[in-house]
Design goal:
This protein is of the alpha/beta class. The chain is built from 18 helices and 10 strands. A hairpin with a 7-residue loop joins strand 1 and strand 2.
């Protein structure tokens, strides 16, 4: 199973892949405008009260800003305009007091708006990140055959950060400036209607090309984010394989490959920044030109005696507020366009539906006292990434409760595919009709809830997976509610207790990323202890002792023999010496069961198994 690839949208400039049963066509979302941010509505809806409170603080802060020019007009006309010096001082004190109260209100409401909106941005981003991560965890392995994990990580980090910037800052700033801009414009129209209607006409001519040009900025923003995701994918792949990279002295090549990817991201970002800079410059220059025309008309009105100096000062402040709002809106619009691209990418992940899911009304799994029964009825299967090559072809097999069955055969024969289908990482092909079923204890696996199905199965993979946690937590992963004594008992059964106690902090020792602090054989024994602790009725062993030395293998084989007692066990093994005592051996070749029987029976047949045995036992 590959974990290096995304059912993500094709980056800009690449032809999208056609939909398949494993990668269904995604619904089309509006593109080319901030309308794509509508995908965030379900994440904002639970916080309607906070949004309403933030809106109230936003309006109050904008209102305080818009009141300031009115207070200034009163200061100029009713304070400085008085002839009596004493009355003038009294009036000035009163007007400055009013201005200070306006400033206090502006500060309080702005701080309250900032806190509320920042909280909202952090909360929505956390919810979005959790939702995407939870959704990705539920995808079938087929998703990861076409999805780069590095790109998923990029969406979880870079894209959600962009969304946080917009929800927690830019959107609020944009709404605040929009309210102030509209308010300032309304006051200007009220005080100088004829002139400002001319200005409004000019602003319309500014908005239309800005919207058209903004679409190009959005496309470049999306392309830039895709290039960053490509870099993340390369880094994730290489860092997970750093021993191989270093053993082939490929550090320079990989650094050069990453450098090429980051340069591609840089050049795309430069194109985006250039386009956005042109957009912002156009908006500011054109808007300022229109507003300066209105201001010029206002100065002419003062010279004619149509308005007072205070009126002109008020007009100047409203023009400054409007021009500043237009400039900020130009910046915010660019942020919205970038966030729109990020939101599209996140929503595309959330729109990806796994073909493997629990049924709407699952069948309850029967209670069993011993091992599970397994039935494969005419099962044929093709991996989605290899539709032309059958991994299994018309396979029928029966495994009785408590039986130990070994799967052997050359590489690519379909042994691991049997495990993948048992765990329902994939479903069999439907080409053979409804009879193509896999049953566990008499119930089709597709009728069981995924959690119920997988709780009944314990697995020890060929490559042991160790998490960045303590040894205790790694073993307890098999059964999170297990006590410390149960964990230690499982470790003793897997012959892991001695080396775990010898670690610096014993069972509490941190094992490092992917278990780099312990050997391969020790990692394998921890994986075996994890499966023993789970105590499932069906045990799957995929080359469970492949990383052990001869002495450790004998000990773990004894532990596994004890663990397999009373439960069904299916073993994959290339070393035939490890499966000679199995109740039955199934030989697979090119996706078919070609032989079955005990070790001695298969040797007597002198077929595929006998040839494999001759190669191994005569060396």
């Amino acid at each position: 199973m590959s974990l290096s690839t995304t059912a993500a949208p094709a980056p800009a400039g690449r032809a999208p892949k056609p939909p398949t049963p494993e990668r269904p066509a995604k619904p089309q979302r509006p593109t080319g405008s901030p309308r794509s941010l509508s995908g965030l509505v379900p994440f904002l809806r639970p916080y309607r009260g906070r949004i309403a409170l933030a809106g109230l603080f936003l309006v109050l802060a904008a209102a305080a800003t818009l009141v300031f020019p009115v207070a200034l007009k009163g200061l100029v006309d009713n304070g400085l305009g008085l002839a009596d010096r004493g009355e003038q001082l009294i009036a000035l004190k009163a007007h400055f007091g009013e201005l200070f109260l306006v400033a206090v209100a502006l500060g309080v409401f702005s701080a309250a708006r900032f806190y509320t909106v920042s909280w909202l941005g952090e909360r929505v981003t956390a919810d979005l990140r959790n939702a995407v991560y939870r959704h990705v965890l539920q995808q079938s392995p087929a998703f990861f055959e076409t999805t780069q994990t590095g790109e998923v990580l990029s969406r979880l980090t870079a894209d959600t950060t962009l969304v946080q910037t917009v929800v927690g800052s830019s959107l609020s700033m944009g709404l605040r400036n929009a309210v102030m801009g509209v308010g300032a414009l309304a006051m200007l129209v009220y005080s100088n209607p004829y002139v400002m209607f001319q200005v409004l006409g000019g602003l319309v001519l500014v908005v239309l090309p800005s919207v058209w040009f903004g679409r190009r900025v959005r496309k470049l923003s999306r392309a830039s984010q895709d290039r960053v995701a490509d870099s993340s994918a390369i880094a994730a792949e290489v860092l997970n394989a750093i021993p191989v990279v270093q053993s082939y002295t490929a550090e320079g090549r990989e650094a050069a490959r990453f450098n090429d990817s980051t340069n591609a991201a840089f050049h795309t970002a430069v194109r985006r920044t250039r386009a956005r800079s042109v957009l912002v410059a156009f908006i500011i220059i054109a808007t300022s030109g229109a507003l300066l025309w209105g201001l010029y008309q206002g100065t002419q009105a003062v010279m004619r005696g149509d308005i007072t100096a205070g009126h002109l000062g008020q007009t100047v402040l409203y023009v400054i507020i409007l021009a500043g709002a237009a400039g900020v809106l130009g910046e915010v619009y660019g942020d919205l366009l970038r966030a729109a691209g990020a939101t599209e990418r996140l929503m595309e992940l959330l729109d990806t539906h796994s073909p493997i899911a629990s049924p709407a009304q699952p069948t309850k799994a029967p209670a069993i006292a011993g091992g599970s029964a397994i039935d494969f009825d005419r099962v044929t299967f093709h991996y989605p990434s290899r539709p032309g090559q059958a991994a299994l072809q018309d396979v029928t097999l029966r495994i009785k409760p408590g039986e130990t069955v070994a799967l052997v055969g050359p590489s690519g024969a379909g042994k691991s595919t049997v495990f993948q289908l048992l765990l329902r990482f994939y479903d069999p092909d439907l080409a053979t009709g409804d009879a193509s079923l896999i049953r566990l204890d008499g119930v089709p696996t597709k009728d069981l809830a995924l959690e119920d199905l997988r709780q009944r199965i314990g697995i020890v993979p060929q490559e042991a997976v160790i998490f960045s946690a303590s040894a205790m937590d790694n073993i307890r992963y098999g059964r999170p509610g297990a006590s410390d004594d149960e964990v230690r008992a499982a470790a003793r059964a897997a012959f892991a207790d001695d080396f775990l106690r010898a670690l610096p902090d014993g069972y509490d020792t941190f094992l490092g990323e992917r278990g780099v602090r312990i050997s391969g054989g020790q990692r394998q024994r921890i994986a075996i202890a994890r499966a023993i602790l789970k105590n499932a009725p069906l045990l799957l062993l995929d080359e469970a002792t492949s990383a052990l030395d001869a002495e450790s293998e004998r000990m773990v084989q004894a532990a596994l023999a004890s663990a397999m007692t009373g439960r069904t066990t299916v073993v994959i093994a290339h070393r035939l010496a490890t499966v000679q005592k199995a109740d039955r051996i199934l030989v697979l070749d090119h996706g078919r069961v070609v032989e079955q029987g005990t070790h001695n029976e298969l040797l007597a047949v002198n077929g595929v198994y006998a040839r494999l045995a001759a190669l191994q036992f005569t060396q």
